[in-house]
């Protein structure tokens, strides 16, 4: 039975072959640079995809919340790292998880470090998150006073274990010069390692954004890479140059409910609750909420003439269709939409349908039926 026969409403498809190729390629790059690949699972959020990752030598993962860490506990990971400034209201849950699973967290201030030093009951590792230009969070790379205060407080606790320094250069998603950001990351992490490795000889450095990890080849002695979006990629990454559209491993299957040949538009069941609100801007100023691919028994194909979702509401989407698409499409057909931001689309959909018709889990809940 074809996977297409399972679909009667918006459904997120995953091409395992593409996903594995993305994992393999990044694992090879890490190996060439003598680095560990510790992927961020905020994109896939799936135990099944985690099992695929293990086949490429991945032993440790990164997550974005303690809830996600709990979901992956008990799955044989050496360490689960929570890459978010730690929320002190969750110390009790952290103590619970760290009894049976090696956990590490991120610290950015002395207040939370002090609370953890007092209240932890099991060993927890930590990275100090560094801001080398993104500006979202982290200790400024030159703020040695704050870095050393966090380290000093941690040494008063038998349960806090310093692991190293972590940078997520999120501004690489929007920058014209990704190489310059990458060089900035290398310089910042190498400087910190040189400064503190005498006192902490086992400290490691980690960089974590998909654009630099995908596009750069020389990592200048950084110990670990932790990209996340690369496992699926998306139109945003294709636009940056991190990947090609052929590397995008997920597509939202949507039913066609109406066609307007005069306006050259196709109405689909697929809106914000499925694709999220992420948008790209076309050269003429139009909005692009996702691009059309043609579904087949073996997955999907990228058509020669580009069509895109130009507007969305809660459940509806309107495709600005090429002549090729209008000629091929009928009411009741299924089309595929490559997402602008695969992480958010996956989070909206909460499950994946593989090309062999099997459901793949997502941390937010497995849906195994269509209405």
UniProtKB/TrEMBL annotation:
GO molecular function: D-serine ammonia-lyase activity
Domain D-serine dehydratase-like: 249-356
Alphabetically ordered keywords of this record: Lyase
Annotated InterPro entries: Ala_racemase_N, D-amino_acid_metab_enzyme, D-ser_dehydrat-like_dom, D-ser_dehydrat-like_sf, PLP-binding_barrel
Keyword Repressor in record: no
A Gene Ontology BP annotation from the UniProt entry: D-serine catabolic process
Lyase in keyword set: yes
Family: Belongs to the DSD1 family.
Protein name: D-serine deaminase, pyridoxal phosphate-dependent
